[in-house]
Design a protein that fits this description.
homodimer; Aspartate Aminotransferase, domain 1; 2 domains; seven-stranded mixed β-sheet; 13% strand; globular; disordered N terminus
Chain lengths: 418, 418
Amino acid sequence: MTKAHGADIPAEIRNRDAMDPLGHLKARFHVPDGLVYLAGNSLGPAPLAIFDEMETAVRSEWAEGLIRSWNDAGWFSLVETLGDRLGRLIGAAAGQTVICDSVSINVYKALQAGLSLRPGRTTIVAEAGSFPTDLYVAEGVVAGHPGVRLLLEGVDADRLEDLIDEKTAVVLVNHVDYKTGALRDMAALNRIIHAAGAIAVWDLCHSAGVVDVQLDAAGADLAIGCTYKYLNCGPGSPAFIYAASRHLDMLSQPLAGWWGHAAPFAFERGYRADGGIRKLLSGTQPILSLRAIGAGLAAIEDVAMADLRAKSLAMTGLFMELVEQSCRTHGLELMTPRDPRLRGSQVSIAFADGYPVIQALIERGIVGDFRAPDTVRFGFSPSYMGFEEVYRAAMAFNEVMNSGSWRDERFARRSIVT
Amino acid sequence: MTKAHGADIPAEIRNRDAMDPLGHLKARFHVPDGLVYLAGNSLGPAPLAIFDEMETAVRSEWAEGLIRSWNDAGWFSLVETLGDRLGRLIGAAAGQTVICDSVSINVYKALQAGLSLRPGRTTIVAEAGSFPTDLYVAEGVVAGHPGVRLLLEGVDADRLEDLIDEKTAVVLVNHVDYKTGALRDMAALNRIIHAAGAIAVWDLCHSAGVVDVQLDAAGADLAIGCTYKYLNCGPGSPAFIYAASRHLDMLSQPLAGWWGHAAPFAFERGYRADGGIRKLLSGTQPILSLRAIGAGLAAIEDVAMADLRAKSLAMTGLFMELVEQSCRTHGLELMTPRDPRLRGSQVSIAFADGYPVIQALIERGIVGDFRAPDTVRFGFSPSYMGFEEVYRAAMAFNEVMNSGSWRDERFARRSIVT
């Protein structure tokens, strides 16, 4: 990668950065010199605090503290203390969120918990356009529940709403679509789901940290999400799972490991689930990765999510405005809704040849990504990015498209991970 | 903690250390000054290489490399590359071991995989004295399979062997008992399990890294284990799971996340399991914790496991010899078998008042642990420890017992994590 496109920045753009009330957040992150990083919807950059945090975790807590750190460094309760902090960023009161395991594992728990709350019901409803792991895991859950079927929006009906009825146990829905960037109205959909007596499971992977999620206020039942995208907590950092407190008594999930036990250190022979949110835990958590989560949250938790959301919308709006003409010229479709109420924090452009376009941009220091078979994605973070970066990215995109430079052979070679 | 007991060390003990062919390994670990660390069966100490490794993982790979590191730093294949390296330490040829998730999650996968290989069979056999999470997870699995029952050695019959018959689908067994330190004969038990047509799942938590485990040679079917005890890979570091290659075609498991898909980046709608060991993966793994595993393995993988095992047995044998008299005097039972073929790498002493004994020893820099309701445990590692430490620990134990100093009130206060 080389330095990002050195376009002259218009005064109006510079002005927006100068007036930005969140402009100070940028200094809390390490973004490599000259890079415009638009892949934070895949992996967020490192918050600067991480360097000290990991040093402390490795040298003081593990190497010096050893087993004492389970108590003295609070390792055992990190899943809850960090969970409550993350909960504040997604509108969840304390005691309803834990950090643990992967998104896939938590989807499994959430679907099983949903089924446990609605015994006798026979369908799980999801989106065919869901991030695939959600569907794979739903398949795995359904295979273990003879009589329960998986119905998909986009396959079994055009609209999710048309699949929800008195047979529906659980509706698994992405808050923001990972491909198009479209945002669901959580409160409105919850009303429809609840009117049918079903349970809503929200996948917040692409909204937590950039959308003003209000789980409690919107009446969500269960939610899951990752911490390594817009929450900037590190590669593959542990995921989270939320359950509304009204469901905690009744729900159960089968990954009944010792961390979910009411008395994990009593070493009882039989499983007795914890009465609170810890019942959604299973086994021992990876402490080094978990420790990084504190640094990620600390970088944004002292500002209002509504302000982050407002800036995010201004950024995606500006980018769409700036690339619209070149998309039209080259017959490319902007997949992301123009209505700010309907989009998350990314701009997606449908283009089957998008892979080499992304490679050509990366060579110019503009890092977006491509998702098979035809989606070019640019993720915008209101925390480590300003309007100047938005402008540079748009100008580079226009230039790569208009010059046709992306057609160069060297951009066609694929890596394992796209 | 203060410096460990400063007993004069007999020449015979010093001699054993001087002659120790593994004596050079000690310099690869950070054990806090003056500490005799006998809790490596709970959390191993930090290998020195970890400091650079984490620095590289955080600064170069995450902060500078960002999403490129999924390819350039091999993040995506770490589960396999590290899995194969770990496999060599437990007698598993390449392509049969992956590092992922927690032990509890992997027990769930292994039991489900075992059931998938033996459809129609109706029992899972396990040990009532198993580490509890294995039983909790087994309960969770059984609850999802109507018609399948969990039978326990110690409850339904005295001997595990008496529970194994033509109804048995899976036998879940601890290679080394976490309380007593007793070691099972893996090959012999596999023969009994296979004679009944059942599947053996071995929990290697307390044997991997100190016992010369030979999964392939012993005919094991599935195995799981942790990396944070005798493998010294960090607090809560991801676990491992092994499946013999002969079973990979047929087995399935329900935690069907995208990392287990045959083409994870094709974003197909339906789940198609990978044909190899990756089918036991589920979601994205915590890369920082995963990166630490390389340092843990590197610290012991260039010596022969048979040599580590020989030294381990010499250490536990010496300790038992040295504490035998004081145990007898105070009516305490040595739970660990004296026969070297029958023990792992820990010495356990049954004592309901063991908690304050451990606290009194910790105050002297001798760190063991206590497991409710009545087990004092001392774990011996042949890698970062010499015979001098064994001697000091035994002398301190004898002194604490003989003086009665453990009865002091200040040793009675419990922490969350015991």
